[in-house]
Amino acid sequence: MAQAAKSSPRSITNRFVKTVCARLAENKRVRRNLPEGGRLHIDRQLPFLCVYRRPPRRRDPGTERLILGEASYLRATGSKRLKPGLSKLVENVARTLSPEFGAFLIIEVWAAQPNQRNVTGYNNNPLRPQPAFRLYLSKTHTPVSTVETLTKSLKQMKILKRSARVEVVYSRRRSPPGMSPLLLARQAKALNCFIIGLEVQPVYRHPDTGELYPMVLQTLHRGLSRALKRAFFEFTRVQTTHRPRNYQVLGRRAMVKAVWQVDQQLAAISNSYDFLLQVTPVNVQSAWREFKRSRCQRAPVFHYRPLPLDPALTKRDLFAIHIERIEDPTLAYLFRQKRSEIDRQLTMLLDRDTSKFLYGSLQVYGGVDDNLFQLATSLLETISPRSRDGAGGYVDAKTFANRARDEVKYYREIYPDVSATVQIRDDITGLMVSQGNLLVSSRTQIPVSRIEALLQHEVGTHILTYFNGRAQPFQQLYTGLAGYEALQEGLAVLSEYLVGGLSRPRMRLLAGRVLAVRRLTEGASFVDTFEELSHHYGFAQRTAYIITMRVYRGGGLTKDAAYLKGLVTLLDYLKRGGALEALYIGKITANDLPLIRELQWRQVLGPIPLKPRYLDDPQVVKKIAQLRNGLTVLDLVKRRKK
Length: 642
Fold this sequence. Notes:
The chain is an alpha/beta fold. The protein has a domain at 14-56 and 63-254: Aminopeptidase, CATH 3.40.630. It has helices spanning 14-25, 83-101, 144-155, 185-190, 214-239, 257-271, 275-278, 284-293, 311-318, 329-350, 356-365, 370-382, 397-414, 451-470, 476-479, 485-498, 504-521, 526-536, 541-552, 562-575, 593-601, 618-628, 633-641; strands at 30-34, 38-42, 48-54, 72-77, 104-111, 132-137, 158-159, 162-163, 165-170, 193-200, 394-396, 422-425, 431-434, 437-441, 445-447. The strands form four sheets. An eight-stranded mixed sheet has the order 1-2-4-3-5-10-6-9, sandwiched between helices. The chain has a three-stranded mixed sheet with strand order 12-14-13, with helices on one face. A two-stranded antiparallel sheet has the order 7-8. The chain starts with 13 loop residues before the first helix and ends with a helix.
């Protein structure tokens, strides 16, 4: 078990130091409180230590956050009274770990004081803060490639569109002003310990009042953490006997209690409502009959389920979640993004069936840009409206549900935790996966030629990623990271293609949804969009109604553009050599992939228990290879026409 943090000691004793070093020698995690609010966290045996010492006689808001989240850090007071004990602790940590790796690195971080000389070329404008750093190095004992990597990584950082400046200073002093070094030069050299001083321009607070700029601090923290990890990787690769495979391997593995609490609280709120179910009309069929009676000239009136929660009160609970307590910048970022999405969805529920609903939808799901719109119109013009799916006949809801249950059973035999059910419902249209369960409309008729494609869309993608996400330690992987819909639907549509069921009418339907979303955002009425789909593009009236209903429900839901948008994103991803199997770890976005990989390298996330059954099919492997050669969505249609 991980060592529990204890109450803060009054001093750093020899016994304390011996206890810490004994645990490190056994490769055990150390997380101990230090005097006056300090903390030592070392995840496991690592060849580096990040240090921050709080100035004893002045405030320094925000700076200590910059090292939190690293796999090995020391946060302490700069009090002269505690300096001997602190130096002894650092010396013995280095003495314990340096022999394990052949070398050891200490990077001490501090904030520049207002009266200090700025980094050369630095523009000290509080209204347009520019990140700036100064590295203090020894002339004779410096890890050159590590410094080069750190300098390059820091220069890549941007805050409010301003690039960072970095200055390198060779000096005997590599500690904060007014504080003596933790290790003397001769001690460091004897231990083959390298020391770098990193002075940070405190752009994350007002230069006069000290008021924090929280968003700037978050951005700086994430960027600095990435730069430090790359520097630690270069140091480990060049200066030590170890050869890590990736810089993210050196990141933090152990998670503190606050991480699990935030994850559980966000998941509980996310699971307390089914957003799509709440914005789907309960009178789709009767509204269709009324619409036909008006000769399709009067927009239907939709009715919705009563909300199972009070969005305003739920928001109160949402913003009571203490994400700020999370030290890890990667996880804090993912959690903040999810909180923002839940907040917007709750606002949409409050605005349901009003004109304001659309503005929330644009924030959550986005709209349709010109390129996507042009692709959709090209598909509508390329594929004949006379193409049909039903040449082999149709199956009813009960037959399809039984096939879906067989598919779920297949995955359950591989991974017994798959607890999905298949339900036939009267209150939905078509097919829908809700919290890992497949809902099938009692009135649905599925073309025989589309059965396998829809099974892989709903079960082999949506249900599979739900339970793969549940297998991970973070519940966000199954409830869905913010903005996951496009990649999720892109994967689902791609699965239809890979099993040979992405028909020309299906592609036409997805294009029609994109057109409807575009017309919605341009201000077209329900009737106008329906007529364009029906009269201009030749959709059957019932199909045109369903497309328009899905897009105009709730007051305007732009989510249906995600299917084609996600497919385009996925084809580009495959063309660039992306690994398809990696996308099934849960409900994630394409932009989150680097963060997901980081968590995998850090062994925070584990392997996935399930992969779609079709990925082992030689014909599917061949198709994926063809996609990697750069096939476009239009190419998929042309191939279907041959």
